[in-house]
Amino acid sequence: xxxxxxxxxxxxxxxxxxxxxxxxxxxxxxxxxxxxxxxxxxxxxxxxxxxxxxxxxxxxxxxxxxxxxxxxxxxxxxxxxxxxxxxxxxxxxxxxx
Length: 97
Hints:
It is a single chain. By secondary structure, the protein is of the alpha+beta class. Helix content is 27%, strand content 39%. The radius of gyration is 14 Å and the shape is globular.
């Protein structure tokens, strides 16, 4: 079992939710009022540039989560602007359900 952590611009959270639903994920956790902090603009806009984010945690099998991440990445890449998106796939040592 693995865990996919998705951190996405809050304005795209409903679109990402639709993608997750389309992948037939049993359930996931969402934290809609998060803040992402970008250090890539250091010196231009200040030291830390916060952005409104939504965090989603999805558990499942490796192949399914990789397909989900690729679908989210493709959807976000199709936007005419560059929204903030970070995804991490990590192993789960143990789960209780």
